[in-house]
Design brief:
16% strand, alpha+beta, 4-stranded antiparallel β-sheet, two-stranded antiparallel ribbon
Length: 232
């Protein structure tokens, strides 16, 4: 069992504020075990990046969506045929990285997320996704990913995940996190995490101040299996 020490200078949890955004990340092996026919899941192997790293799902502003999106485009988006939506204008480097860390782009998830949530950010698609890539990189460099990769095929608990968040992002960070699990046969597999944020996400702030400024939430799924790619 991995034990993560609490940072010495974090003597008390940060007071709960108001959550302005939700950062949603997937644990792709678990997600794909429950949706094996999705395009992004068909080729998932243990060697692929998203087999051992959190994948980007999206960044959602609270209580705002489809800002300035034409009614016909919005209707097309809600049908779910996301690859039929307009392509996004982004730097080639950003597009290339999204293909790796946001496997849902194979199903047009990036186009959907931009229309539903990115249009409410006040910047371009490039700005929206570059900012998320920065936050995702920080999460994947944290004790949270260390915990998940050390426990592939095994169960982790709410307390262990909260402790990992507190270690990397400050005391109380784990109270701003919710875990998603889904039944796969007789197993409860982790499909992802949602993380509350508050503050100016476009200003280059790190995850720690953004998480600690958010409001608390219920963890929901108290324990689940960190699925490994190909395990069913």
């Amino acid at each position: 069992m991995i034990a993560f020490p609490v940072l010495a200078d974090d003597k008390a949890a940060a007071p709960s504020g108001k959550t302005q955004y939700i950062l949603s990340v997937s644990w792709q092996p678990g997600f794909c075990e429950t949706r094996p026919k999705r395009k992004e899941c068909v080729g998932l192997t243990a060697e692929r990046y998203d087999a051992t790293h959190f994948s980007l799902h999206g960044l959602w502003p609270m209580k705002k969506s489809y800002c300035g999106v034409a009614a016909d485009i919005r209707a097309r988006d809600k049908k779910g045929d996301w690859l039929e939506l307009p392509q996004l204008a982004m730097a080639e480097e950003t597009q290339a990285k999204l293909l790796i860390v946001m496997p849902g782009t194979q199903s047009g998830l990036d186009r959907h997320q931009w229309l539903r949530s990115g249009t409410c950010q006040g910047g371009t698609a490039q700005d929206y996704f570059a900012m998320q890539l920065r936050l995702l990189d920080e999460l994947n460099g944290s004790a949270v990913r260390t915990l998940f990769t050390a426990r592939l095929g095994q169960e982790v608990t709410e307390d262990e995940i909260k402790q990992a968040f507190d270690t990397s992002f400050g005391k109380g960070a784990g109270e701003r996190v919710r875990m998603r699990c889904q039944k796969a046969g007789d197993r409860s597999v982790i499909t992802g995490l949602t993380i509350g944020l508050s503050g100016d996400v476009s200003a280059g702030a790190g995850l720690s101040p953004l998480i600690l400024a958010a409001g608390g939430t219920d963890f929901k799924c108290g324990r689940g299996i960190v699925d490994a790619a190909g395990v069913q």
